[in-house]
Amino acid sequence: MINVEFQNLFIPTLLCLFSLLCFVTFFSKKPKDSSDLPPSPPSMPIIGHLHLLLSSLIHKSFQKISSKYGPLLHLRIFNVPILLVSSASVANEIFKSHDVNISSRGLPPIDESLFFGSSGFFSAPHGDYWKFMKKIVVAKLLGPQAIERSRALRAEEVERFYFELLEKAMKNETVEIRREAMKFTNNSTCKMIIGRRCWEENGEGERVRGLITESIALTKKVLFATLLRKPLEKLGIPLFKKEIMDISDRYNEVLESFLVEHEKNLEKHHQGKDLMDVLLEVKGDENSEYKITRDHIKSLFVELFLGGTDTSKQTIQWTMAQIINNSKVIERLREEMDCVVGKSRLIQENDLPNLPYLQAVIKEGLRMYPPVPLFGRRLQEGCKMGGFYVAEKTTLVVNGYAIMRDPNYWEDPDEFKPERFLASSKTRGREEEIGEQVLKYLSFGSGRRGCPGSNLAYIFLGTAIGMMIQCFDWRINGAKVNMEETLSGMVLTMAHPLKCTPVPRICCSFPVRH
Ligand code: HEM
Questions:
Q1: What are phi and psi of 432, to 5 degrees?
Q2: What pLDDT shows up at residue 135?
Q3: What averages of pLDDT result for each successive group of 10 residues across the chain (514 residues)?
Q4: Shortest-distance atom of ligand 1 to CA 376
Q5: Pair 402, 86: CB distance under 8 Å
Q6: What is the rounded CA–CA span in Å between residue 481 and residue 320?
Q7: DSSP bridge partners of 411
Q8: CA of 58 to the centre of ligand 1 (A)
Q9: Integer Cα distance of 231 and 16 in angstroms
Q10: Which residue CA neighbors atom 43 of ligand 1 most closely?
Q11: Do 343 and 507 touch, CB atoms closer than 8 A?
């Protein structure tokens, strides 16, 4: 049974029901020939498949209907067509053969909002602005060379994370892993993009952190607003716009103050330029290929915080929960770390390539619990997909969660088995055989709009989880961690946040803070 948690949507939904009756009846266009469309599960009059979006676990409702009606489905929310992809072979086809055609998200911007608005990078269509900004983001923040340049900033944060846990361990305090992980990912990201930490209580950074949490909770509403905005605006219903603009205005206040501060210090930052310095220079450059505005810079920052910090935090929490539930995994991780890193120093970023089991554990955590279980694109032109005709402007929803648990492509998909990602794994042969025809690992999306932060994310995850296992044992209440899922906005999180007590490993006697 579908569990509807979204009381706030009842009033708009009821309004929609009645108002859109006229709209759909009189104005919606029917496809010329619907015989070529992918199959469609039974739908409700007028609202179509809206009820599936009202489920508290949308990715699971989608997974359920896909396993019943097929891996490529045609859904309809009022008159908005959606193509739901839940198969690794169709994912392979669309990302290999139609990548440009699906390289826009097609989110109608929420006007001047700093998130999902018209100045955004995430929602920008695949065009000049997106290409220009992507080059800068890769060159200055997320590409391998940029990551190498900022390594020292992150090393300090890993060490700080370790000392904070140690302090709590000494007091026998229980910690909430997601809070500690958020602090770590937030401060590391802030240092890389605005040159300073952002977790000072009551400071501006604290406000940004609070705003991130509020925005994530709002992402489900943003999805509704973007899917239904056009038809509803014609009827004069501004879905959630006030809430979205309220958060955007508060972001604006904080980010404007960061910008002003950076403008004042631009001259002083000659050597250690952060991303904000670079973007301000580009903004002031008369000869720049693309003229960017203050809103472009602010929107990018909001999206980097949103896209980078919460996702990494959730993965740290899910993966730690899996590790704690599997004592054999802890043993094997420790063996590997003791051998590669030793006991006299803390794990570092350049150890990660030599820790294949740790990497496999992280990949497996991301496979089973991808923080972004569903991601969306929009077709620019009509085309054939999976043998069916899909019309232009159709919204494409890829269910990465379902694809990464598809029993046709993953052995024991609901079991935590990091070994599957090791080169020597017995199952590897079969996986490589089918690897060419399918795209079955989608934690970071795929194609040109795939996540540009995946390398940085693997570093955050590897160093944080590595340190927590290298230096501490973890005590929990009860025998096993409860792995029940919930969605916070559209982000997959634990229904019961992981709380545990760190116990320093006696054998680790390092390092002394200078
Ligand atoms: C565990 C961590 C992360 C996960 C699971 C994740 C996942 C994703 C996914 C699924 C997408 C959509 C991809 C698609 O449409 O194909 C995405 C996009 C994006 N991510 Fe990440 N991400 C993570 C970390 C990061 C980090 C650390 C950053 C940067 C600081 C980042 C920045 C972005 C940006 C800017 C986009 C939009 C790309 C575009 O539209 O061109 N992400 N991410």
A1: -70, -35
A2: 96
A3: 44 47 43 70 90 90 95 91 94 94 84 85 94 95 94 94 95 96 91 81 70 84 73 66 88 91 76 84 92 95 90 97 97 96 93 98 98 95 92 94 96 96 63 63 96 97 97 95 94 97 78 52
A4: 15
A5: yes
A6: 10
A7: none
A8: 20
A9: 10
A10: 451
A11: yes
pLDDT at residue 51 in the model: 87
Q: Is the dihedral of CA 247, 251, 252, 253 positive or negative?
A: positive
Answer yes or no: is the ipTM higher than 0.95.
yes
Task: Give the pTM.
Answer: 0.90
Mutate-to-test residue for ligand 1 from 194, 275, 451, highest number of ligand atoms within 8 A of CB: 451
Distance from the alpha carbon of residue 218 to the mean position of ligand 1, in angstroms: 18
Is-contact 378 104, C-beta < 8 A? Answer: yes
| Nearest one of 324, 283, 304, 228 to 15, comparing CA atoms | 228
Ligand 1 centre to CA of 111 (Å) is 22
**CB within 8 Å of 341: residues ≥ 6 apart:** 347, 348, 351, 355, 466, 470
* Distance of alpha carbon 429 from alpha carbon 33, whole angstroms: 43
507 appears as a binding residue in the annotation: no
Structure tokens at 424: 């020597």
CA of 452 to the centre of ligand 1 (A): 6
First-to-last CA distance in the chain?
57
| pLDDT given for residue 11 in this prediction | 46
Residue 330 CA to residue 122 CA, distance in Å, equals 37
Closest atom of ligand 1 to 300 CA is 35
What's the confidence (pLDDT) of residue 489? 86
Question: Hey, whose CA ends up nearest to atom 37 of ligand 1?
Answer: 122
